[in-house]
Amino acid sequence: MSRTFLTGLLTSAALLSSVLTAPSVLAQTPAAAGKEWATPAGSLNGQRFSTLNQITAQNASRLQVAWTFSTGVLRGHEGAPLVVGDVMFVHAPFPNTVFALDLNNDGKILWKYEPKQDPNVIPVMCCDTVNRGLAYGDGKIFLHQADTTLVALDAKTGNVAWSVKTDDPSKGATGTDAPLVVKDKVYVGVSGGEFGVRGWFGAYNTADGKPAWKGYSIGPDSDTLIVPGKTTELGKPVAANSSIASWQGDQWKIGGGATWGWKSYDPQTNLIYYGSGNPSTWNPKQRPGDNKYSMTIWARDADTGAVKWLYQMTPHDEWDYDGVNEMVLADQEIDGKPRNLLVHFDRNGFGYTLDRVTGELLVAAKFDPAVNWASKVDLDPKSETYGRPQVVPQYSTEHNGEDVNSTNICPAALGTKDEQPSAFSPQTGLFYVPTNHVCMDYEPFRVSYTAGQPYVGATLSMYPPRGDTNMGNFIAWDARTGKIVWSDPEQFSVWSGALATAGDVVFYGTLEGYLKAVDAKTGKELYRFKTPSGIIGNVMTYEHAGRQYVAVLSGVGGWAGIGLAAGLNDPHAGLGAVGGYAALNQYTSLGGTLTVFALPQN
Question: Tell me: the pLDDT tens digits for 471-490?
Fold first, then answer.
């Protein structure tokens, strides 16, 4: 498999010190975003909820474009801008340009940072040359570049305060994730599961970039920072070196478990939560065992990295159901009992509700009725298979140790939901989830490992579930019961991040390029506007000069839009995504634009 194939898969005036008015360090978890949007999800709990309420279900139909900004890059634009004080910070895909825009002066560019990166990193980026965003803290803007350089920029000037290399792109490792700042540390992970990169999650000091700790997804306890007898999984102590015991020989050294998704933090427990991705290779026959701890929810001590608890959602993954999606922290009652919850919508099509303090599994239910690879997740604590998905043999890609070409597996490898983050409204008690409604045929084949070369071992085709024509839905989900409350169908996958607001309006974007506003209680569409390109960015909101704004990056790309982003035509390229989303080029084209909306001024 060539690198080209996997690609198919896959200065200005200084800012015055008075402009930045926010605290230099985020010392505690805000319950929700307010006037600012200073962290990737608006707040450290991952809720993507804003207390701003100027825009309501009654007046959202009057929204209009307030201003726009072009990034000058024509690839997939994931993530969202930050707003700190009177400055907006905007990022772009490779080469990972960062702009500081003065909100007091028509979005004037205060400074621009454009790193000089080796273009050889592009062929090892899966999928597309995306970057998921920036973080702010300690008076700095943090960016994890494609070449795995973690850079800290002075927020006032754009000057590099420090930079540190986190991994090695020559071996397939890349940086695509949005960092997260908590107190005096900045946290990042790594991409590269399709190259046999051994995933890790690490903390660096915001002051100087010195490593604080690093925990691997796979390997001996000394590497994973699992504490035998104290770390738990589903309430049971984890045995010594349990990760290595679940792999054959030294396979764990190239075992995947990348960590390119979102992070959340709970100050009450001082735990940071995130997920690990697929095991390498995609051919399950080549890696017998549960392949721990790929496909896992992790709860680590934010200061030391020690693992408090973990839960593997898809043992011995056979379908590339990465577990890196967001971990939303919310407090709700279940069966009349107040709970500190962690809610996670996994690629495998199950929505999980866990106690975030103990890791107890409370709910696991399909958030798309088409999901068929497993009948259910065993929720009986007394069962020997407690917490494990009950795999339907027909949709397995391995039978009796042999490769099987399986058809009509739902969801496809890109999952019922990929990295596009959901939102939670404390007002409605519901989660708002952008989903993929897509199935696949899966043909595994044997592949050999070579450092820096693709290590996939599967050919895919993708299509809507049989009998359906829509490839996506935007849903409201009750995590207490595991039920869909309402569902809005979309022609293509909903690949943008959602936003919930105190005005009872929820926002999301579509692959055709529409920014949509819907009623949080009913899902009724209130407003739509077609932006210059397909939206795979995350909607955010902020207030400036007393006025609420909603902003989103448009620029089609990512896995679903890789055909457009990279100019591919082979239907099997992009691991099946090119064929599955072939019609997308009839509705949108490449772009890189920030579009900002507001109500008209009277």
Answer: 999 999 999 999 999 999 99
CA distances from 505 to 119, 390, 514, 517, 525 (A): 41, 37, 16, 6, 10
Computed from CA positions of residues 394, 398, 404, 406, in that sequence, does the dihedral angle turn out positive or negative? Answer: positive
* C-alpha closest to that of 432 among 493, 367, 377, 349: 367
Q: Is the bond preceding residue 411 a cis peptide, omega within 30 degrees?
A: yes
| pLDDT (tens digit per residue) in 80-107 | 999 999 999 999 999 999 999 999 999 9
**Does the residue 97 lie in any domain?**
yes
Residue 6 lies in a domain: no
The answer to whether the CB of 216 falls within 8 A of the CB of 166 is no
User: In terms of Cα–Cα distance, which of 273, 259, 333, 261 is closest to 302?
Assistant: 273
Residue 586: how many CB atoms within 10 A of its CB?
A: 7
2 is a domain residue: no
The region, left, alpha or beta by phi > 0 then psi within -120 to 50, assigned to residue 125 is beta
The span from the CA of 512 to the CA of 589, in Å, is 9
DSSP strands (E only) in 451-557 = 458-463, 472-478, 483-490, 499-501, 505-509, 514-519, 525-530, 540-544, 547-554
Q: Between the CA atoms of 258, 262, 266 and 270, what dihedral angle is there, to the nearest 10 degrees?
A: 30
Q: Whose CA is closest to 537, among 457, 420, 446, 432? A: 420
3-state helix, strand, coil split of the chain in percent (to 5) is: 10, 35, 55
- Give catalytic status of residue 266 as yes or no: no
User: What is the value of pTM for the model shown?
Assistant: 0.94
Confirm whether 7 is domain-assigned: no
Contact 143, 91 (CB under 8 A): yes
Q: What Rg do the C-alpha atoms of the chain give, in angstroms?
A: 22
- The single residue listed with the structure tokens 């490792």 is 173
Which entry of 138, 266, 320, 504 is annotated as an active-site residue?
320
Residue 17, domain extent: 12-598
The DSSP string of 43-95 is STT---EE---SS-TTTGGG-EEEEEEE-S--S---S--EEETTEEEEE-STT
How many domains is the chain partitioned into structurally? 1
CB 186 within 8 A of CB 203: yes
Kindly report the CATH number assigned to the domain that includes residue 193. 2.140.10.10
Terminal CA-to-CA distance of the chain, rounded, Å? 59
Which structure tokens are listed for 191? 């991409």
User: Could you write out the three-class secondary structure of 10-24?
Assistant: CCCCCCCCCCCCCCC
Backbone φ and ψ for 520, nearest 5 degrees, come out as -65, -25
Structure tokens at 518: 């819907």
Contact between 294 and 217 (Cβ < 8 Å):
yes
Closest to 81 measured CA to CA, from 549, 514, 434: 549
* pLDDT bucket at 167, cuts 50 / 70 / 90: very high
